[in-house]
User: Which sequence fits this backbone?
């Protein structure tokens, strides 16, 4: 229980929000002058709040709008069906109503299988079917169908608005923000793998398993598709908020996510090599080892830079120095591989190392594609652009520069460190 | 629209089933002597049918049982809360009711975040919250709370049973069967990749892209986790049906699925090599090429054997000949790699080929794990065991033997074919 709360403290707030919204809407029952208008239909408002209120604003809005619109449409249609069935007389009415209900229920159930409808309007279709059946069928007994339809629509609107109001104005949870952070987090997981991998691979037997956790973090990316898709779907219902303007390119996140997953699949394969029995011995040729660690960690840093650019929604104009460094390191590794670096080495070892190196190069190619798609996002979503030669004391720029400098100094330290060991 | 129906014709049947169930339950409104007992509460039965009926039996049962049990429990508790709030007098009643509702709603909303509860009882918790609020709150106005609670429980039971009845007895769709078939299909996709891959890799430029489709089929495995998990969850609600007995080991399918996905991740990485610019030239040493194609296609056949064993739920006792063949071929490839097969060959080419070969060997190791987990399933689920030396004219055995023989003859033809080309 503690873990559930610690994982995301917003869950506790959400629980209180649900309690508050239901208590608010149940006031209709307690105050006489509020109750008079609706009578026992007021329970539809309570029911709507409970069913509509969700964790994120987007999900609540999507459900609320679906429910409101579907109820209105189905109420109108049900009222029409009731009148149509009334025309031929009392005897035929149940038969006609039965036929209408059957046809509508079967059609709507089939439409719910359409992938596009399923994603965005599944709940609306369910409510459409439900309201139509309730209005047209119970209209057979209750003569005041119009009043019933009216009451149902208005109580549902009240419930829906209460849920949406509480959800938006009390500590809102934005699906768009969650999606944006998820994308940045996933990039950071890739980055920490790449930064740690070179060292891990060449020193496997000698060091304790301290940084294994950061090397395993990428595993959560493998199955992230579903949650990403639902977040995108929720985010598209949301109004502009924070740095996300109207028509923010949410679908671009799916592209970035899919490339990130492709990268993670390759890392998973690479990890298979790490866990296999044959390991490159620590003596495997020096040049190669240096090139390898450098390519991996420089790319890790470049990806980390992308992640922080995502997070702050600022992107340096032009090529960033880190990307150029990572490309250089990769080219270096490639040419070493091509020229058959270590002549005296055992063929078994070279085969193992070659596999790891090719996979790594494949991963680096993947990160380049990710970088492209993030630049695409940046131009679509109008990220802040930082001129590298700007010197007006812009605090954002200073911060950004500090990040670059510190990562550069780490890079050179790191490099130095390697040389020292050798 | 046509595509949705063609993909799975059971969808059309399902749509008619929904129409039928709703029409059945709405009979309560049309016949006077049925209507008398429930009055306008009869609409709860219609509502329950619409909300509970789902595509598969397991999903319907899960929702129906959740709804029934939650309504019963919450009805009892709501009745108790109503009485408790009545004790101090009319003035304090709304305040006490408000506090009860707030506490219960907040608690249940929080419990819904627990992963275990979310998977199996999410819907039940929602309905629990809903019914409690309805009974305790509307009890403030309606003095006959007990009767209302009783009506709500019984109409929901009627609706739930109608939905479950229609779902089970008219062309049932079993989630367990779907899960079993999904596992077998995924294995077949792996098998067709492995069978086609060797040829594809070594003849890339020369042949048309005819069998690309079978090489791409594995991609759907990559994101199969979510649908597998929900099918397992549904299947666990289902009664014994067809070959699946009581307490069928559904969770073992998750293990098989996770191993299948691991295999697919490696195939995705391997496919990255297929699409990269550097390709092994057709002249790459003969021995190696033969060993490579053989290892890949023999393993493909072994996996296909496993898939058909899954599908027919029969497993030959002892090691099947195909598995032994595939292991031999893999060992052969390994030893060729170890001894540094082709001395005269260009280093760039050998590096490329070595990468593909290591990945392939990793995939073969993965398929062995899959085979183990299927044998585990076979013993847990009491698959039929076929003695290889049985000669009593068992038709299943004959069929199975035919499969083995035909695959063997294809194998030898295939082998012959390769030699001819060379």
Assistant:
């Amino acid at each position: 229980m503690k873990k559930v709360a610690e994982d995301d403290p917003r869950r506790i707030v959400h629980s209180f929000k649900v309690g508050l919204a239901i208590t608010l809407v149940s006031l209709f029952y307690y105050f006489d002058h509020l109750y008079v208008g609706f009578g026992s239909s007021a329970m539809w408002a309570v029911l709507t709040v409970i069913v509509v209120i969700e964790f994120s604003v987007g999900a609540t809005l999507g459900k609320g709008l679906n429910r409101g619109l579907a109820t209105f449409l189905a109420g109108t249609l049900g009222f029409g069906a009731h009148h149509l069935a009334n025309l031929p007389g009392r005897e035929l009415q149940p038969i006609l109503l039965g036929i209408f209900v059957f046809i509508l229920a079967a059609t709507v159930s089939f439409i719910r299988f359409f992938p596009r409808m399923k994603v965005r309007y599944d709940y609306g279709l369910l409510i459409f079917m439900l309201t139509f059946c309730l209005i047209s069928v119970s209209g057979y007994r209750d003569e005041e169908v119009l009043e019933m339809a009216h009451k149902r629509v208005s109580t549902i609107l009240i419930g829906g608005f209460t849920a949406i109001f509480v959800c938006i104005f009390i500590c809102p949870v934005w699906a768009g923000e969650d999606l944006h952070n998820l994308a940045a987090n996933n990039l950071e997981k890739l980055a920490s793998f790449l930064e740690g991998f070179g060292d891990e691979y060449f020193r496997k037997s000698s060091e304790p398993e301290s940084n294994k956790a950061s090397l395993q973090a990428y595993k959560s990316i493998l199955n992230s598709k579903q949650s990403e898709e639902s977040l995108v779907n929720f985010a598209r219902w949301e109004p502009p908020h924070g740095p996300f303007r109207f028509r923010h390119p949410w679908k671009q996140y799916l592209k970035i996510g899919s490339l990130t997953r492709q990268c993670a699949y390759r890392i998973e394969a690479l990890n298979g090599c790490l866990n296999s029995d044959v390991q490159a011995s620590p003596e495997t040729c020096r040049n190669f080892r240096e090139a390898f660690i450098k390519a991996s960690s420089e790319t890790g840093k470049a990806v980390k830079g992308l992640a922080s650019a995502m997070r702050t929604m600022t992107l340096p104009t032009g090529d960033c120095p880190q990307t150029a460094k990572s490309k250089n390191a990769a080219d270096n590794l490639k040419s070493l591989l091509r020229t058959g670096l270590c002549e005296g080495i055992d063929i078994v070892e070279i085969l193992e190392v070659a596999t790891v190196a090719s996979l790594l190069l494949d991963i680096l190619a993947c990160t380049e594609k990710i970088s492209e798609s993030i630049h695409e996002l940046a131009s679509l979503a109008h990220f802040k652009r930082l001129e590298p030669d700007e010197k007006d004391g812009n605090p954002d720029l200073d911060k950004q520069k500090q990040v670059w400098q510190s990562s550069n100094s780490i890079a050179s330290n790191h490099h130095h460190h390697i040389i020292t060991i050798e």
Observations:
- The longest helix of chain A spans residues 347-380.
- DSSP finds 18 helices and two strands in chain A.
